[in-house]
UniProtKB/TrEMBL annotation:
PANTHER family to which the protein is assigned, alphabetical: CHROMOSOME 16, WHOLE GENOME SHOTGUN SEQUENCE, LIPID-BINDING SERUM GLYCOPROTEIN C-TERMINAL DOMAIN-CONTAINING PROTEIN
Protein name: Uncharacterized protein
Transmembrane domains' residue ranges: 37-60
GO CC aspect terms: fungal-type vacuole membrane
Organism this protein belongs to: Penicillium argentinense
InterPro entries tied to this protein: DUF3712, Tag1
Keyword Transmembrane helix listed: yes
Keyword line: Membrane, Transmembrane, Transmembrane helix
Length: 342
């Protein structure tokens, strides 16, 4: 989501009794607040982190770099963890440069930001924004749960985000703003953010998104798994996301080949290694390699997202995103011949 993808389609801000006092500072401040940085922040956390990130975890470094660099806010170090069916944890401590020629001290009071689907006006999340103190810059210290009140709404958005459809969210909230000696201003945030989704299928099929770095056959099978592998996954974003137990179905030439489990998928900064346990039809695999198109032992395996759960509970908003993943992985079995034949 570059800045141009975010259209401001409805703005309104309230200020009580403050405009007359120090117009210059107030005007400057209003101009600054027009950047709506906290609304972007909230919308980003809710929509992008929860829906888009899990989807784009394999690949698209260029896309994501642009996506992030075009943003004013620096998300380095943001951690999404402990996903539950109706909540997850967000943590980040960050110094922010306010920019925009704004200086002075004050604070934006803590407030509950409500995130809605504009058409239905259904609230699906409340993000408790902590008090933010300014002093030239600001320190944002977030370490709290984000509760989801309409998981289906978020799952719908996840699917739209994953299939290149446009969607919108409405953020509302009523924080108080205290700036220097000025009287407290009561803000009325009411903002619709229009965003475009992205074609996940295209993204996950880019080269270099993930590599199989080790592969061991389990013979006899362990807990129904007949292989154990490690994959290295590129995280194109500067934050980390704990997704939990993720399952993919595998196909070959349109037929079922088996499945893989990633018992604890975590996307850390840059590249992270994740354990994969799986069960595949070995004879089909070897047959395909031998009878293939004559280019060595290369096989193409279809990878379809199936589910995501954490502590045994389905995480519907991640599942929806995972189910949008469809990729073809090309693997040269000769690279793993020693473990396959050993
Ligand atoms: C946010 O909502 C919760 C739950 O309704 C409430 O306990 C809390 O005081 C609210 N926070 C603010 C800053 O209004
Ligand atoms: C996604 O949708 C936008 C606007 O509808 C379109 O311009 C773009 O080409 C689409 N991208 C893909 C990959 O289909
Ligand atoms: C996404 O990209 C794939 C592969 O390029 C294409 O087959 C599919 O139609 C695209 N989906 C959408 C919704 O644009
Ligand atoms: C799979 O491999 C990893 C790393 O080599 C190891 O820690 C783990 O115990 C293995 N799991 C099974 C079920 O063999
Ligand atoms: C996968 O391997 C290619 C080629 O060695 C490399 O360029 C790429 O960075 C690797 N990707 C990951 C996620 O390790
Ligand atoms: C994945 O496999 C499961 C179990 O075999 C099956 O129920 C499900 O329909 C499959 N999903 C997809 C998307 O192929
Ligand atoms: C990730 O990559 C960036 C840019 O290459 C580097 O500055 C940073 O230290 C890396 N982080 C980790 C944890 O390796
Ligand atoms: C994967 O390969 C199959 C068969 O080769 C093809 O039909 C399908 O469109 C490919 N999927 C993607 C996402 O490239």
């Amino acid at each position: 989501m570059s800045k141009s993808d975010v259209e401001q389609s409805s703005d309104s801000e309230g200020n009580d009794a403050t405009a007359a006092t120090k117009p210059t500072l107030w005007q400057r401040f209003k101009a600054h607040m027009k950047k709506w940085w906290w609304v972007y922040l909230i919308a980003f956390i809710v929509i992008v982190l929860v829906t888009v990130l899990p989807i784009i975890y394999v690949g698209i470094p260029h896309f994501a770099n642009k996506y992030i660099n075009d943003y004013d806010y620096d998300y380095t170090g943001l951690v999404i963890s402990n996903p539950r069916p109706t909540a997850f944890h967000v943590k980040q401590k960050k110094l922010m440069n306010m920019g925009g020629g704004f200086s002075g001290s004050g604070h934006l009071s803590a407030f509950n930001a409500s995130i809605r689907v504009p058409d239905t006006d259904e609230e699906f999340a409340v993000f408790p924004v902590p008090q933010i103190d300014f002093n030239g810059g600001a320190t944002l210290d977030i370490d709290q749960d984000l509760d989801l009140s309409c998981v289906d709404c978020l799952a719908d958005i996840a699917v739209k985000a994953a299939t290149n459809k446009s969607f919108a969210v409405l953020a509302t909230g009523h924080p108080d703003l205290k700036l220097g000696a000025l009287p407290t201003a009561h803000l009325n945030i009411h903002k619709t953010l229009d965003m475009n989704g992205y074609n996940v299928t295209e993204f996950v099929n880019e080269n270099g998104a993930f590599n199989v770095t080790s592969l061991d056959l389990l013979d006899p099978p362990v807990n129904g798994y007949n292989f154990n592998a490690t994959i290295s996954v590129r995280n194109p974003t500067p934050f980390s996301v704990e997704m939990g137990h993720v399952t993919f179905n595998l196909t070959m030439g349109g037929d079922e080949l088996g499945y893989v489990d990633l018992p604890n998928l975590k996307l850390e900064e840059n590249i992270s290694d994740n354990i994969v346990l799986g069960n595949v039809d070995k004879s089909k695999l070897i047959q395909e390699a031998l009878l293939g198109d004559g280019t060595g032992a290369t096989v193409t395996i279809g990878v379809r997202g199936h589910s995501c759960d954490y502590n045994g509970q389905d995480i519907p908003y991640f599942s929806a995103a995972i189910r949008a993943v469809s990729a073809n992985a090309t693997i040269d079995l000769l690279n793993y011949a020693s473990s396959l034949l050993g």
